[in-house]
Structure formats: C-alpha cells, structure tokens
Amino acid sequence: MATATAALHLLLPTRRRGRLLVPRACQADSSATTSRRGLIADTATAAVVAAAAPLLLPRLPAARAEDLSEWERVGLPIDPGVVLLDIAFVPDDPSHGFLLGTRQTILETKDGGRTWFPRSIPSAEDEDFNYRFNSVSFSGKEGWIVGKPAILLHTKDAGDSWERIPLSAQLPGDMVYIQATGEQSAEMVTDEGAIYVTSNRGYNWKAAVQETVSATLNRTVSSGISGASYYTGTFNTVNRSPDGSYVAVSSRGNFFLTWEPGQLYWQPHNRAVARRIQNMGWRADGGLWLLVRGGGLFLSKGTGIVEDFEEASVQSRGFGILDVGYRSKDEAWAAGGSGVLLKTTNGGKTWVRDRAADNIPGNLYSVKFIGDNQGFVLGNDGVLLRYVG
C-alpha cells in the first residue's frame, strides 16, 4: 500500500520551500528558452503519465479461504489426502474432543477444536490394515469408535485410554455408525442395515432388527418400492434422530428406509422426487430434510416420518449438497462439493451462499453442531472449518 501511495504522490503537484512546483514547460521564466521540440516532449510525457495513473491505484486483495464470515479454517497435522469423517466431544468437558478420518486418522483436541494433535492408540495400529474410522460418540466419560475393516474401540475415562473390543467375523456389513446411549451402553449400525445394542461395554450385542435390509426387501417383492426387488446393495448414508429413529438412503439413491425403536424390520419408502437421493437427515423440529443429486434440497411437510416433501430455494451453483446441520430450529448450514456452504435463518425455506467459502479447495462432506456455539464442517484433503459465529 505504501508503494502505491508513493506512486500517486508523484503524480500530484507538491510544494517545496513554500513554492508550488509545476511542470517545467509551464514555468513563465523559462518559456523563452524552451524550444518547440522540448515543449512537445514535455507535453507528451505528461499525457503518458496521466494515462498510466489509473493503473497505479491499489487493488483490494482477493478473498481467501480463511476469510469466512462465521467459520474459520483449522490447520491439521495430517496428510492432504485424508478425508475427515466424524467428530465428537466429551459432554463433561466440551473442550476435549476427537476427530476421525481415513488412513487411520485419529486427532485429539483439548481447547475446543482450535488446535489438534495426532492420537496414537496401540490397539488400533495394525500393520496389515489401514483403518477408516467412521464414527465416534460419547456419553459422559464413556466413548466408542468404529471403523472399517471391522474395529471397535471403547473408553471409560474420556479417551485417556482405549481398549479394543473383539467382534464376530459373521457381522453383516461394515460398521458405519455408533451412538453412546448410556453407561456401558451403545447402539451400532452396519451398512447392510443391521442394528445392534449393548449394555455391558460391548462384550455382548443384541440385534434390534430381525434381518438385514436386503433380506427384508427381497422377501417383500410386492412391497411396491421402486428399485427394491432383489436388492443387494448397502446404505449410502444413515442418520439417527435424538429419539432413536433412523433414516437411511439406499446405495443407488432410488429409495429411502426408516426404522423406529420397537420395529422388527426397516420400512422402505419411495422417493417423492424425480432425481436420486444423495442424503437425508433430521431437522431440529423433528422433520426430515432430503438432498438430491445435482444440488436440490427438500423439506418434509410436517414432522416425523412422511413421504411428502417440498423443494427449498438454494443457490448451490449446480454442485451437489452433501449434508445439512441444524444449529437451532431456525438456523442451519448446508455443505457440499467445491466448497459450497449455505445458510438458512428460517428453518430451511430459503438459503444464502457464503461466497467466501467458494475458494476452499475441496469438498465439504459433513456439518456437525455439538451445541449452539460449537460446530464444525468436515471435508476432504484435511479441510476442517470451525464455527466462530
């Protein structure tokens, strides 16, 4: 800025020793001695300088990825290719949390997520496997981590130490989600729809559903669900509500499924939109949100499990929206491909893009709000955004 100011200063008349300095060609005492050729040269020089003046004006710096209105980029001590998958904090100590990802990534923070450091868990370090840690959850000081290939970790001291819980080789599918539900208790879900619960620190598990989703759909060929017959796929996404209900999207995105506590089977539902479903989850008011491939966002009419949705107004620029996280009943954030970050303040009816996030070099996969003032956006290439309000 100082250089640009100095350049502008050279173009303006200046005073020296109380006299106004003007171009030599304009001085009266030298007009008799100035030749015609010199006058033309001085005039041409002045014209060139005047024309160049606008080029010397300072330019505003371009917005950086870190210049986010309500989010800040957090640096992480990991390889650029790591995809971040889940984050959780100890309820008794909101400043203490864990961040999971691919390539055996486990990071720990003790300052609310401002800084992170690698966490080594000897029982999870196997030379023959490169674990993908999918989900982490805490209840009190008790916590759980699940990953792929099949691995289950448990802590009873807020993560100071972790033990590995053995699992059956007959477990259907890969573990994609776990929820701590109380003392020594948890609920675990696989990508084939198996739901298991434990009440003794994971040493015994009881099935909450009688069969996998594939078995349910292939048994009920006449269910009327488009694309469900002879289904052999897995879940693309699965999300749990605070009351324990689940909504999951089929791997092909052509229908979705729900399960409520006490039901013996998953319940399939036809999609209410033309495009295939990308992801689904729960609003803060108990309703559902639904994302379709290509950037569309829909909200269910009313609360609970329904099949009637209406489209919301979004500015996704055609990039897919991958996840939605509610901070309150009115405020929520949506994230997606190529740094798409959207905000709503009316429960999801209309969304406005945070343009400063357009320069983030990566896809944003997950939005997590732990409380009103603690939230994070997880992405690929080690991208982590922290909510600063």
> How many strand units?
30
Main beta-sheet strand count, sense and barrel state: 4 strands, antiparallel
Report how far apart the termini are.
Answer: 30 Å
Measured as a percent range, the helix fraction is: under 10%
Question: Which word captures the global form?
Answer: globular
Order of strands across the main sheet: 3-30-29-28
Strand content bin: 35-45%
Give the mean pLDDT: 82
Unreliable parts: 1-41, 43-66
Number of helical elements: 3
Structural class: mainly beta
Query: What is Rg?
Result: 30 Å
Organism: Triticum aestivum (Wheat)
Protein name: Photosystem II stability/assembly factor
Domain Photosynthesis system II assembly factor Ycf48/Hcf136-like: 66-388
Function: Essential for photosystem II (PSII) biogenesis.
Q: Key features?
A:
mainly beta, 389 residues, globular, 4-stranded antiparallel beta sheet, 38% strand
Explain what you see.
- Its main location: plastid.
- The protein is mainly beta.
- The protein has a domain at 2-56.
- 8% of the residues lie in helices and 38% in strands.
- The protein has 3 helices and 30 strands.
- Strands 3-30-29-28 form a 4-stranded antiparallel sheet, with no helix packed on it. A 4-stranded antiparallel sheet has the order 4-5-6-7, with no helix packed on it. Strands 8-9-10-11 form a 4-stranded antiparallel sheet, with no helix packed on it.
- The radius of gyration is 30 Å and the shape is globular.
- The relative contact order is 0.10.
